[in-house]
Amino acid sequence: MGGRGSVPGGTMVDIDTALRSAAMDGKKAKRQSDGSKPRRAGGSVGLEPFDPAEFKKKEVADTYSMWLVIVGSVIFTIIMRYVAMPAIEGPSPILWLLPLSFVFVLPSLHRLIIPTEISDLYTGGNWFRSGMLWIFTWLSISILLVNPPLGDISPPEITEAAILFDDGDEAQNLSSNFLRTGTTVEITIDGAYTEGEMWLILGLRDNVDVDTCPFHVSMIRSGEILLNTTFNGEVRENASSDFLSIASGNFSKMSLNGFDTRNAKSEDQGFAINLGSLESGTYSLSYSVNQQGNPWMLNGTSAEYTIKIIND
């Protein structure tokens, strides 16, 4: 309980009032003491003091690292594209394994090229950012260098393969004459020969120029080579015109590769190869397409079928 006391001179003082006054004087003295000390920026929220000189040093160090990684990755990618790739015959794991492994060399590369007073500022975060920048720079430059117009590593493909007849019952109703099991096609005929001539229909696609993609067609019966031709140049032009005339006819056809012809694109080129009138027997029909890419030869779609002409 509060009471009263006396001080020299006989003045009466309330004890509670004295205690509150003492507390207020203590706080005021503490504030004056704190105000006389230099204040630390961000101290009230636990932030480190901002040092402009140190910040500048870190920014300069990050800039050195960024340009070292970008320039190094570009030079490395160019060497891989124009030295390593022509030295091998096709895609190899080394083309992606070596660039990715080089990420682990980046810390040593920084210490070797960048002055010590700067490289000593790097931490684990710098190595992570440098690694990601190296990988994405390598990927982007590689994509530019291996695709047209600077390169071509995409093989051509046969988007459609089918056979049809230009006359006779087979031309109008292939479904009743064809029985497919795997790669074997059976055709039943009434006489010794097919009534019409058989045509091989091919749709060809490439990312650069279909005219630079020669395709090979062969047909063998009992060891006898009936057709063994590489189509290009003038022969290709004739095949294209034959395709147009065949396509405009009212003929049914049978797909050999199961592709959906509705997925054909305007840049695809169609070719029709005349296989002639066939007598009963077993034939081996094959086709393949390739292209001299940049930097290596590209082997595209290939297939082989067994065709049985059966005399009913």
Question: If you had to describe this structure to a student in words, what would you say it looks like?
Answer:
It contains eight helices and twelve strands. With 312 residues, it is α+β, with helices and mostly antiparallel strands. The strands form three sheets. A six-stranded mixed beta sheet has the order 4-5-12-11-7-8. Strands 9-3-6-10 form a four-stranded antiparallel beta sheet. Strands 1-2 form a two-stranded antiparallel sheet. The chain has two domains: 52-146, no CATH class; 157-311, Coagulation Factor XIII, Chain A, domain 1, CATH 2.70.50. The termini are far apart.
DSSP strand (E) fraction?
A: 25-35%
Report the average pLDDT across residues: 84
Q: Give the uncertain stretches in residue-range form.
A: 6-11
Tally the helices.
8
- The total of beta strands comes to 12
- Helix share, percent: 25-40%
**Largest sheet: number of strands, sense, barrel closure:** 6 strands, mixed
Just give the CATH class of the largest domain.
Mainly Beta
Category by helix and strand content: alpha+beta
Instruction: Give me the CATH architecture of the largest domain, please.
Output: Distorted Sandwich
